[in-house]
Amino acid sequence: MSTQLRIYIATTVAAAGILLAAAFAFWPIRSAIGGAAGIAFWCLLTFVASALPVRLPKGLHVTVAFAPATAAMLLGGPAAAGIVALLGTLDVRELRGRVPWYGVLNDHACFVVAATVSGIVLEVLLGLTEPSSVLSIGGSVFGFFSLIVASGLYFAINSFLAIVVVHLRTGIPLRTVWAEDLGGIVLSLIALAPLGWLMAQVFQLPAGIGWWASALFVVPLFSTRLAYARYVETRELFEQTIEALSKAVDARDNYTRNHSSRVSHIAEAMARVMRLPENENEKIKWAGLLHDIGKIGIRDNILLKEGPLDKGERILMNQHPTIGAEIVAPATQLSAEAPLIKAHHEWFNGSGYPDGVEALDIPLGARILTIADAYEAMTSSRPYRKIPLTHEQAVDQLEKFTGIQFDPEIVPILVNLERSILDRPPDRPDELPTMLHQPRDARRDAVDPVAAAAEQPSEPATRPALASDDVS
Q1: DSSP secondary structure letters along 388-457
Q2: Ramachandran angles phi, psi of 199, nearest 5°
């Protein structure tokens, strides 16, 4: 555990203790919650709602405990909300010992801070000692508005504290954790606040009816939890499908294995340095993984050719960005990536392909991908260049063709990236698909013997002699 994380956890725990003590000192627990039995009841409902958290992609865990915790805040005030947040937010991972003690301490402290602060804010807004204006079915508009404000603050504080922990533990930028973990479900989480208000209303029904009737809300809460789980599963399936497609292209030759994932990684790092919006970063990430998918439509005798391409072969090779864009464009979730895929071989001076657009007419994401793609290609082995360029040689090529092939304002972004991002990790033989375990010549002949035997350049080679011109 880093020093920063240790200090952060200690500060959060101390703040939780101070806030809970202040809540007890200044705002006595209201009778509407039903005394100690009522607090135990809401602790139990909160435990049921938080027992099976859903893990989000970047490391946050989300539950539906927000609804019963809000109800406890309305019924009992900030002190009751703090107790329920402290005792009722246990989950199965903690009970099984899968979360370290300091993680358990921090998680509960975050809940206590969020619950007590929002409870105090609600009390201040209403200026009440009794909750009638909010809890009665015909409560005032201002009372209900105050509830929404306090609940929104509850959600914001708890989310922020949790995101900071993930950032300190993993190094992932704060806005990335927010966008990828909460961006898609934030509205449905906030919508749990009115449900908590309704649970509090039902709890006050006479003759004990409210107690068991409030417990029935576990059913819609569980359905909401299932919806979150399906959301995560769908997103993971989407990401895994994209990665599988990129590997399918790279697997046609052992020279290009992991090429697309490295281009994506470098391009995304560049985009983050440039502080692009999170949706743009994600678009560049997916386009990087799929930028060469159009090579599915290029014959092996051209794609794997060790010598220079003749004019006809060059024309066919230059079609792969267009083919790639046409492949992904029909997919709604990937339609925004299609223009980047199509333009990733355009040159800044307009002499690239397939459309010959230039300068700022080339999408920004494509200009980033062009540089990342060229660097990765130059520092890797290729059929036409068995010995890869060093980092220094590749940077020299990027700078040499700045303003010609590459955007002069973006090249320095890559050059200044940390070497841990740019350096190629050691190749692992077990990453090779079975077909690539065969000798190269035997594999090529087996794939397309007719084309391989007939491969005879009929015209002088026209392929540009630029180290930065990645053609395979």
Answers
A1: PPPHHHHHHHHHHTBTTTB-TTTHHHHHTS-HHHHSPPPP-GGGS-GGGGS-HHHHHHHH-HHHHHT---
A2: -60, -40
Residue type, 93: R
DSSP assignments along 355-395, one per residue: S---GGGS-HHHHHHHHHHHHHHHTS-BTTBSSPPPHHHHH
Q: Is the dihedral of CA 295, 297, 302, 304 positive or negative?
A: positive
CA 405/CA 120 separation, integer angstroms = 59
Q: What is the pLDDT of residues 52-92, one digit of tens each?
A: 888 888 888 888 888 999 989 988 889 999 999 999 888 88
- The DSSP symbol for 291 reads T
Q: Are 248 and 226 in contact (CB under 8 A)?
A: no
Please choose, from the candidates 151, 110, 97, 147, the residue with its C-alpha nearest in 3D space to the C-alpha of residue 125: 147
3-235: in CATH 1.10.1760: yes
Q: How many CB atoms lie within 10 A of CB 240?
A: 10
Distances (CA, A) of 164 to 8, 276, 447: 9, 20, 52
Token pair for 46 = 């909160």
pTM of the entire structure? 0.73
Q: Which pLDDT does position 184 carry in this prediction? A: 76
Average pLDDT score over the chain:
81
Distance CA 222, CA 187 (A): 17
At 455, give phi and psi (nearest 5°).
-70, 100
Give the residue from 340, 367, 180 showing the smallest Cα distance to 270.
367
- Integer Cα distance of 82 and 69 in angstroms: 9
Please give the structure tokens belonging to residue 17.
């203790």
For residues 369 and 410, is the Cβ–Cβ distance under 8 A?
Answer: no
Region of poorest pLDDT, from 123-137, 340-354, 419-433:
123-137
| Cβ-contact 324, 293 below 8 angstroms | yes
Helix (H, G, I), strand (E, B) or coil at 460: coil
- Domain regions of the chain by residue span: 3-235, 251-453
* Tens-place pLDDT, residues 20-41: 999 999 988 888 888 899 999 9
Segment 322-338 shows an average pLDDT of 87
| CATH (residue range 251-453) | 1.10.3210.10
